[in-house]
Amino acid sequence: MLHRPLWTVKAAQGRPGGDSGRSRVARRGDVMPRTPNATAGSLLGFLHAGPMSGWDLAEVAQRAVGEFWSVTRSQVYRELARLAEDGLVEVGERGPRDRRPYALTEAGRQAFLAWLDREPEPEQIRFPLLLTLSFGRHLPPERLAAFVAANRRVHGERLARHLAEREAVDADVRAGRHDPWALATLDFGIRYETAVTEWFDALPEAITGPADAARKRPDE
User: Fold this and answer.
1) How far apart are CA 63 and CA 2, in angstroms?
2) What pLDDT, in 10s, does the model give residues 67-76?
3) CATH architecture classification, 1-123
């Protein structure tokens, strides 16, 4: 069962050296396919729901994990090609809109479980505004205040969206239409966005600027 988009911190992709780092596992005697990286592993996970085209997988990934894990359309197609090469997915005939469906193989199921069983790396939060704030003294105060206000709006909107979704997801879990892991990630998102918005609200006026000025957008 697929998750809804739930929280917004983007975790670091893969191990040091990028998402392309891969180890090896045994398959079919001495043939050694690559162990899926995090992006490929997630695609194998989505394919448990049934065959999907690369386009569909990109859409599903964006809806399911896009708010806390970045998966681009180009990454999806690149990883699918590698998964097919390693025998972890099968490529079907071209269908509507010239799209080819990808189906999970038994080797793909085993590779997915091997990937999922690995301990996740610690997250590394990437917060562009914090980088800008680190050098805030070099910006005009009103410009910095506009950046802060714009980011505060984004996080406030995300929090409102998560809170609105919480009741529906909770009802789905109780009715057996959604798994409890989705609710756990949603609760993380609510707590994270709550903490971030509280941090914004506690910033001094030297950073946020006067109330009227802070409401301006950066492009105004």
Assistant:
1) 9
2) 888 899 999 9
3) Orthogonal Bundle (1.10)
